[in-house]
Amino acid sequence: MNSINYVSADEAVRLIRSGDHVYIQGSTSIPETLCVAMARRGNELRDVIIYSGFAVADRPAPYCKPEYKDSFIVNSFFVNNSNRHWIAEGYGSMTPRFLGEVPELMRDGTWPVDIALINCSLPDRHGFVSYGVSADVAVPAVECAKKVIAQINPHMPFSYGDAVIHVSKLAAAVEVDDPLVEVPTSIPTENEIKIGNYIAEYIPDGATLQIGVGGIPNAVIRALANHKHLGLHTEAMTDGVLPLIRSGVIDNSLKNVERGKSVASLALGSRALYDFMDHNPEILIKDVAWTNDPFRIAQNPKVVSINSCLEIDLTGQVCADSIGEKIFSGVGGQHDFVYGASRSVGGKSFLAMLSTTSKGANKIKPVLTPGAGVVTTRFQTNYVATEHGIVDLRGKSLVERAKLMISIAAPQFREELEKAAAHRFGYAFLRQK
Question: Is 282 a catalytic residue?
Fold first, then answer.
């Protein structure tokens, strides 16, 4: 095994120069020690482009401070809680891109990568370390980077798949003892449980699952305890799937892609999830360009895609990345899996949400809020679920869709939606029973 020559974080980030393009690993594995050290150089660096993506942080990004506004320029392809405020205030920006297509930007040179900052496991006996919970875009970033700087962290699980690098490839390594961010499992509310039960009734035995993050996906998972021979091919693995894997409900026995393996591009959850992943040959963590390829997804049978959203209009246009003009997150893999499920034999996709916001505002709109981004187009939307029911928009006209969407809206808003639909669609809507 090659030994590691550790240096301090301050020494490691000396490799970063003004004008460099720096990728920072995401998921729950942001290399915080390196980010803090980089920020300490803010007064001497200028125009460092920061690529950041899906992540869950336990603090604001240390380089997102007014005094560093000309030092570090954030370009996010998925706005996260460490930089959302910074981008909202106009100091950084976001590049729209399907998450599965972000690696191409690096590999074809559209986005040069000078430095990749990653968070890695302890080395195995062959000298390989794993960036365990986050292969997603970290894999192409490391592949394309001129220099890779790594935190070597005993809290990072060693995962199999693509997120592995030999220590000899590291330009610098820093020894840290930084626990990964833990994301509490969302406990579904009564209404979320209703939605989960609606969706679970449509999921057949032998289905291959892509499950999003949050209360509704967890409600679906809880309702699948009596299913058989399910598979997992997803973007994000969470604690929710652990009971199904341990009980054998998810056994991956009927998948065509990596049969017998649970596949994801990243993980976020509790320490129990990270420990379960550690040196587990039945879990593969893969490059997001691989996991989110709709044509690969479609090779599996009965693909079921389950994702949440922020609002939907009467025609089935889905917004999942913004609140009006304010960018909240990103497209992620929703589109990739909606499309992949549509091409899978027996596949289905579900977009689910509570019918109202926490403040009681309607989330089924006559038209989307001005500035809202369309993540899933009306041409692709399949099943839509709220606590008031589930409808299938596939093959339905705009008028038929409006009727169906109104049927699952909160009752207090249905009359208003009926009037809006009658105004928009005229007699074709009024004659519908």
Answer: no
